Amino acid sequence: MTNSDISNIKTLLSTPKKIVIVPHKNPDGDALGSTLGLYHYLNKYNHDAVVVAPNDYPNFLKWMPGNNAVVIYESEKDKADGLINAADIIFTLDFNALNRAGDMVEVLAQSECLKIMIDHHQQPDDYATYMYSDVAISSTCEMVYNFIDRLGDTALIDKNIAICLYTGILTDTGSFRFPSSTSTTHRIAAFLIDQGANHSEIHNSIFDTNSYDRMQLLGRALSNLKVLKEYHTAYITLSQAELNKHNYKKGDTEGFVNYALSLEGIVFAVIFIEDQGNNIIKISFRSKGDFSVNEFARAHFNGGGHTNAAGGRSELDLKNTVEKFITILPQYSKALNHA
Ligand code: 5GP
Ligand code: MN
Q1: Is residue 79 a contact partner of residue 87, using CB atoms and an 8 Å limit?
Q2: DHHA1 domain location, by residue (predicted)?
Q3: What is the model's pLDDT at position 338?
Q4: How far is the CA of 124 from the centre of ligand 1 (A)?
Q5: Closest ligand to 120 CA?
Q6: Cβ of 309 less than 6 Å from ligand 1
Q7: Residue 101 C-alpha to ligand 1 middle, in angstroms?
Q8: Which residues does the chain have with pLDDT short of 50?
Q9: In principle, which of 75, 211, 246, 290 could form an S-S bond with 217, CB 3.0–4.6 Å?
Q10: Cβ–ligand 1 contact at 27 (below 6 Å)
Q11: What is the pTM of this model?
């Protein structure tokens, strides 16, 4: 985003606007934290800003300030369409291709209003009027902080904004452990703590609110863990029956794939989760080092994401999806042995 883009946006925001802020489908901590952080910031300027999320999300993300004002497209379509059609500006946060907005893709694509993308995923599509895209930054929340900073407004960052932005930085950096978490990330986190984000409470709200069912499902997932030593790869499967047995709720499998990646010597970890409702297998890919799961997911499983974290899907059944995956691996033998 150039200085002239910033100056245009500053001019644009100098009078009250109707603004819709959109996270990606199945929003995570970064998607919700960034949209809600921006929401609190814009409403300080008397804009009429609202977050419209494509679909519902897990309870461990429902405590953030502003959560009650989020409009869920899936359940309030007419209201949401009205907001989008009346908007002067649409911000799309934490995604860079409109099809990541689920059922909102059409109404977003046909809207001719000004669009601003803030995102850190690879290979952005070209739909936004102004694009702040940087794959090197830890999280969209860190980028929203930078955006507010470039607009000269860090003094406006209050407790609510700080809590939301800290949350997304925390979740997208894997609690500050991924390489994308830089000294700048830590300085921004420190600033957000100074503005009132309680790091301990936030961590607790996200990570220490497990249900017994979820822990049992994790046990099942770990029992299903398989290692392909030759490829430094480990994978987990969860069938719909296994999910049902443990009363699966949205978000329950979040982070499971990291257990596979935590095995010594493993550089590529995958979880395959059966979703009979949508007739697909949802796949999460994680890696360490140079092995690009973004490229792997794009090439074989209709997905994408980052170098070390990506998602995708398969329309085959669970067994055949895993077989397809295993068949593909030899092509990557060299890369996996040098990652
Ligand atoms: P997760 O595995 O947690 O669903 O996603 C990991 C990362 O990949 C996230 O940054 C997410 O936004 C991205 N991602 C997940 N699924 C897809 C997909 O189907 N397409 C693309 N382009 N990115 C995805
Ligand atoms: Mn993100």
Answers
A1: no
A2: 240-327
A3: 83
A4: 13
A5: 2
A6: yes
A7: 12
A8: none
A9: 246
A10: no
A11: 0.93
| pLDDT, tens digit (0-9, with 9 covering 90-100), for 271-317 | 999 999 999 999 999 999 999 999 999 999 999 999 999 999 999 99
β-pair partners for 226: 235
Structure token digits, residue 297: 């997911």
According to the model, what pLDDT value does residue 3 have?
Answer: 96
Atom 17 in ligand 1: which residue has the minimum CA distance? 311
CA–centroid distance for 86 within its chain: 26
Ligand 1 nearest atom to the CA of residue 302, by list position = 19
Q: What is the mean pLDDT of the chain?
A: 97
pLDDT value of position 54: 98
Give me the amino acid identity at 182.
T
Domain 3-207 has CATH 3.90.1640.10: yes
Q: Is the CB of 281 under 6 A from ligand 1?
A: no
Q: How far apart are CA 30 and CA 39, in angstroms?
A: 14
Best residue among 284, 296, 301 to mutate for probing ligand 1, ranked by most atoms within 8 Å of CB: 284
**CA 230 to ligand 2 center in whole angstroms:** 31
Question: Which CATH number is 212-337 given?
Answer: 3.10.310.30
Instruction: Locate the domains of the chain by residue range.
Output: 3-207, 212-337
Within 10 angstroms of residue 220's Cβ, the number of other Cβ atoms is: 17
Which of 158, 154, 157, 163 is closest to 198 using CA atoms?
163
d(CA 210, CA 37): 25
DSSP H helical ranges for 173-311 = 183-194, 199-207, 212-223, 240-245, 256-261, 293-300
